[in-house]
Automatic annotation (TrEMBL):
Species classification: Bacteria, Pseudomonadati, Planctomycetota, Planctomycetia, Gemmatales
Protein name: DUF932 domain-containing protein
Any Pfam family hit: DUF932
Length: 325
């Protein structure tokens, strides 16, 4: 299901700093925002509340609650009676607790659907430079929270390659993800109080990422290795109808390996780093399904950050690291 941008007071619940986003909607910020500014600009200054649930016959459902958006009384989802909501201000305050020194600023904030999913993209200071080239990777934190019970409060470490704006997905260690999750149960105040450890985790993540990215940029696969790499990312399907699309996907990956954005830099050309970025460019910029352009681009956003595209890129990262070992 597509999740279009939510609205608050008939305005898109979205604010951004920098280049105009795909949907050309929302409020443009003149400079990176503080949490308070981001909440106001993106129309996220609403609370949610829990209400009891009854059947059509008036019978109460004891272990269920409805999450209701307080400003317009929209039901955002059904949850268990153990569910504890995290308000938008509380979620944004999670990162504020990390960056009290002002070293981080919010670049993008918004909500999807009826406001059941909120997201916030915050930029950390500095960047990763690949092999002393002009290929730079910016360091972001992506915070998301679901008011419908579908997901925990999450903070993901989200690198973005500057030259092409591709979002990179990389779980750097076996069994270690790309961030932290806090479930909507138990003592949330205590859990959110542990937010300071996020910055330390992010620092280690990006230090580790820099070392591994530069390792990929120093390894040059043979033609056979490259072919095998792309075939593992898009393995041959059993269904006959899917074989043609898989063949086209592999051909496009080979083309992007040669001609992808930024792949002509001599320091990185024909390396595993450009092979991996052929995948990121393909899955980030391919055509997505949807009834309208906004639907298609909303599906793109969700896929890149949380869905199929993120999973494909993570698999591509692991396979590239295996080749570089």
């Amino acid at each position: 299901m597509a999740h279009d941008l939510a609205t608050t007071n008939n305005k898109p619940a979205f604010a951004f700093y920098g280049e105009e986003p795909w949907h050309r909607l929302g409020q443009k910020l003149d400079q990176p925002a503080t949490a308070e500014q981001a909440i106001a600009a993106a129309g996220l200054d609403y609370d949610v509340t829990l209400t009891e649930v009854a059947t059509v016959d008036g019978m109460m459902v004891p272990r269920a609650r409805a999450v209701v958006r307080y400003d317009n009384q929209t039901v955002l989802g059904l949850v268990s009676n153990r569910y504890i909501p995290v308000q938008n201000k509380q979620a944004f305050g999670f990162l504020d607790a990390v960056v009290a020194d002002g070293g981080i600023r919010y670049h993008t904030a918004g909500a999807l659907g009826q406001g059941e999913k909120i997201f916030l993209l915050a930029k950390l200071p500095g960047h990763i430079r690949v092999k002393n080239s002009e290929d730079l990777v910016n360091k972001f934190l992506l915070l998301s929270n679901a008011h419908d019970g579908s997901a925990a409060l999450r903070v993901l470490f989200t690198p973005v390659r500057v030259v092409c704006q591709n979002t990179l997905s990389m779980a750097l260690n076996q069994g270690q993800g790309e961030g932290i999750s806090i479930r909507h149960q138990g003592n949330l105040e205590a859990k959110i109080g542990e937010a300071q450890r996020v910055l330390g985790l992010a620092t280690r993540f990006y230090d580790n990422a820099a070392e591994k990215i530069n390792r990929l940029a120093s390894v040059y696969p043979t033609e056979a290795q490259l072919k095998n790499y792309f075939e593992k990312i898009y393995p041959s399907p059993e269904e006959e109808l899917a074989k043609n699309s898989t063949k086209k996907a592999r051909a496009e990956l080979h083309r992007l390996f040669e001609q992808g954005i930024g792949h002509n830099m001599p320091e990185i050309r024909h390396s595993l780093w450009t092979a991996y970025n052929a995948v990121t460019e393909y899955v980030d910029h391919r055509t997505f399904r949807g009834k309208s352009e906004r639907d298609r681009e909303s599906n793109r956003l969700q896929s890149i950050w949380w869905g199929t595209a993120a999973k494909i890129k993570e698999r591509a990262w692991h396979l590239a690291m295996q080749l570089a070992a």
